Amino acid sequence: MATISVDPKELEELAKGAKTVIVDFWAPWCGPCRHFGPLFEQVSEQHTDTVFVKVNVDEYQSFAAENAIMSIPTIWIFKDGKKVYNKPGSLNFSQLEELL
Question: Quick check: is 5 catalytic?
Fold first, then answer.
């Protein structure tokens, strides 16, 4: 499954409904985000049982502020409706694979 761009409402619904959801908070001007994006996409194609979503913090600044997204990329992971991972910083392939 490829990554999908979502708004905060869609993210909330996906987090409640899907078994595993991984979220990449990013912005187009962010160098580390541009580096991490293709890796995130590649891993999404290998894990079809996981929903991979991207949230552009420039488009949803209020949501980012309300959720203390102070550095990007920031990765969230939801499993069975509960947030189990919430950390800023880019990951490499093996780190992302290990989290999943």
Answer: no
